[in-house]
Amino acid sequence: MSASHPLFVVLAAGKGTRMKSSEPKVLHKIAGQSMLAHVLATVSDVQGDVAVVIGPGMDDVAAEAQRVTPGARVFVQASQLGTADAVLAARPALDGHSGDVVVLYADTPLIRPETVARLRAALDAGANIAVLGFRAKDPSGYGRLLTDQKGTLSAIREEKDASEAERGIDLCNSGVMAFRVPNISDLLGRIGNANAKGEFYLTDAVEVGVRSGLSTAVVECSEDEVLGVNARDQLAAAEAIWQARARSRFMEGGVTMIAPETVWLSFDTQIAADVVIEPHVVFGVGVTVEEGVRILGFCHFEGAVIGKGARIGPFSRFRPGARIGAEAHIGNFVEVKNTTLGPGAKANHLAYLGDGVVGAKANVGAGTIFCNYDGYAKHKTEIGEGAFIGSNTSLVAPISIGAGAYVGSGSVITKNVSPGALALERSTQEERPGWAEKFRILMARRKATK
Ligand code: UD1
Ligand code: CA
Q: Is CATH 2.160.10.10 the right assignment for the domain spanning 232-423?
């Protein structure tokens, strides 16, 4: 049997009733990515085959599996008769496979590749069945690992079937199990369903296996890594663990976070060294922040690239397609969507920059709006290098402002502006000397005669 080419079977067929959701449980997200994708990503670095077991009609789960792992084979478990039955749903993959088999649960998303490797190493060390266990602060709901005096695993007891004494055991089953057995389908086929739930438990593979002379091993990991998500509170707990891990990873990589517990990251966030992040910042999916950027408080990012040394915030919003050049400044209450800003460009206050290109060192004044949408289509705004857009300007797209041009404050610009020109669009100011004083006297008289 080749240990180097394992088969990973990921179970995702459960209905997830305790989530009380119209969406399958394993599609619920942690750090912007489905739990199923987290598990598939964990095994993606290993050369091996992947089988995902889903329930009937879970087309979106199948699509997600194939999106993340294009080579994954998807099997449908006809009815949810338990975890052993679920693994057997992947029988065509099991029977055509001669190496190790590793079973993971898609509702246990925080497991790390190193830990899966440690579990597999137990097979190399001689075990036929290796179980990933953990010491639970509160073991309720988990299967308990029953060991003899020598610490050898003899069975796994589900909570509902456990005696009072067995419930006192804090060594729990994570759900991750690895097998190096001659015929896993045969082993799982011998599991019965005479238990509290009337289900075919994968966990019984231990007891059945031991009875026929197979050896077992327990590999322990930290509870944080194998939190099982059955309900929304556990989803939130898993998110918190993931976030804490990711923040530490970034801080180790040279990122300063003044209040790390208020910074929210996504599975694919990239932040370079010497970036400083003030409190209350959210990174949605698809964000890259280059070296030396300073992000002031309360900013929100999604699908954005922030160039070296830029100064961002406070209170700025970046939507998909925002590309901010090096040393650029984006200030408070500025929203940027599908817009590229050249190096050193500035939009410091209260602006909407949508579907545009802003040249290097251009200055976009307070209150500037790129009027990009006419109710039917989006249009482009181009601002040349070094142009100056006065405050409270509406740029009605499609529109182009030439390099170095000036646009006077308060203008509604509907025609292209040539490079170096001044464009003004506002009526001529009129002045009436002494008018104010006369007006006040008139008003005071009116009031007195009432
Ligand atoms: C399971 C384990 C328990 C362990 C816990 C860890 C069993 C019998 N129990 O309990 O020992 O401590 O996980 O979190 O395995 N699934 C299917 N088809 C089914 C039933 C389940 O695909 O017929 C899938 C689910 O989608 C889920 C996983 O298997 O991803 C585990 O099922 P779940 O019902 O959540 O088991 P637990 O009660 O949490
Ligand atoms: Ca579970």
A: yes
